[in-house]
Amino acid sequence: MSEAVTLERRYGAANYEPLPIVLVRGAGVHVWDETGRHYLDMLGAYSAQSLGHGHPRVLAALADQAARLAVPSRAFHNDRLGPFLARACQLTGMDAALPMNTGAEAVETALKAARKWAETVKRVPADRAEIIACEGNFHGRSIAVIAMSSDPQYRAGFGPFPPGFRLVPYGDAAALEAAITPATAAFLVEPIQGEGGIVVPPPGYLAACASICRRHDVLLIADEIQTGLGRTGRFLAVEHEGVKPDALTLGKALGGGLLPVSLFLARRDVTDVFRPGDHGSTFGGNALGAAIGLAALEVLVGEALIERSAVLGAHLLARLRGLNSPLIRDVRGRGLFAGVELAPMVEAHAVAEALAANGVLTKDTRRNTVRFAPPFVVTAAEIDDAVERFAATLALFDAPARAIA
Ligand SMILES: *Cc1c(COP(=O)(O)O)cnc(C)c1O
Question: What is the CATH number of domain 3-54+304-404?
Answer without folding.
Answer: 3.90.1150.10
